[in-house]
Please model this.
Amino acid sequence: MIAALRCVIARDLLLAARRNSDVLTVVLFFVIVVSLFPLGIGPEPKLLRTVAPGVLWVAALLASMLALGRVFAADHADGTLEQMMLGATPLGLVVAAKVFAHWLVTGLPLVLISPVLALQFDLPQELFGVLVLSLALGTPVLSLIGAIGAALTLGLRGAGALLSLLVLPLYVPVLIIGAGAAESAASGLGGSAQLLLLGAMLIVAAAFAPWAAAAALRISVE
Amino acid sequence: MSINWFKYSSPQTFFPLAGRLALVFGALAVAACAVGLYLGFFVAPTDAQQGESYRIIFIHVPAAWMSMFLYVAMAFWAGIGLAFNTRLSGMMASAIAPTGALFTFIALWTGSLWGKPTWGTWWVWDARLTSELILLFLYFGFMALQAAIDDPRRADKAGALLALVGVVNIPIIYFSVKWWNTLHQGASVSLTKSPTMATTMLTAMLIMTFGFWFYGIAAVMLRARCIMLERERGSEWAAQYARAAA
Model:
């Protein structure tokens, strides 16, 4: 079973590496959206410092949503997904492996590049740790919840817009707590409470979301 | 004597029952809303701090309660439909969604009307308001997902799964007052403490709640009848009904 998981992860990572422009698109989207905010709200450093965690979080959320359509779409199109459903490995585990690979490809780069973008917003450097940690804990939750939406909208017309309608409301608690971590640390309260909540969300989502997504896949592909 | 629990689980037997229920609960809703509004607007005393503007709670609070309750009811039918694979449960869930969205919208709208004179602003990003707004988005998402899927069986199941995932949001709404202690006042009515409002106000609010509840049942039954007719249009009983109605 572990071997099957490793195989799915390695396969998805290899596929992503062969089509690395897909990965770059998501990161570039993230960078561009974040860079648009100072142009929209003005270059006032004090204002930018206040909004930085929120802007980075919203941009990360949109970027990870943009990438969701690809979690299952290619495998659905060429029939691999049906073989995975027929296989002996429980579908929930396969989904968990696919979501993990998807996060490594689309979520982790956002986490790694976020300190550079935070510099543009003149965020104090002692907050970088909390910000990166909150994104590192939060973006996997986004991928996990998003996988349910991606599975439900598989093969539907207008799936992209529909997916955002389904998934964005469910993202809200993660956004509130995730962006709250750096803001709370900036106000001197420390971000540990929010980080612990994010960790709890990640554990709950990791335990339940793959099974919900697997059930959604069975509904969509039957 | 054994009870046939599944007698009304088929559209054919439920269709006439839904019609009768819609009539009964529609009449009850009109009566309860008339009494409740009269008590609330003419009998209940003026609030010492908020003046007359507080009277909107007789619509706001019942609508907010119903908006959450209907989501749970929708998720309940969705869960039954997924577990027992019954056709009617999915139809009930789709019939509940628009009424739930309506009540959520009313709760947000009246809350905004109440917030302007009381808090001095139409909208605050308070936890409970935000959760109610998310609830509205969840209803919209449910309806949009069902509308996007052509096959009704898949639409039922996909919507059911989404409703069950979204039902996680209901406790967040309800306990958000305790979690994030922000601008929204604490709950005025609780089961464990005696209420902090005058008895007439409470009575009027409870009667309004029943009025909204009965309206919800009547509206859902009417909508369920439409869905049943539409989906079962190929069957004999639906054709008979159409001929009799023509």
Remarks:
- Helices of chain B lie at 11-43, 57-84, 87-119, 127-148, 152-166, 169-179, 199-231, 236-245.
- Chain B is about 75% helix and 0% strand.
- The CA atoms of residues 19 and 222 of chain B lie 7 Å apart.
- The mean pLDDT of chain B is 83.
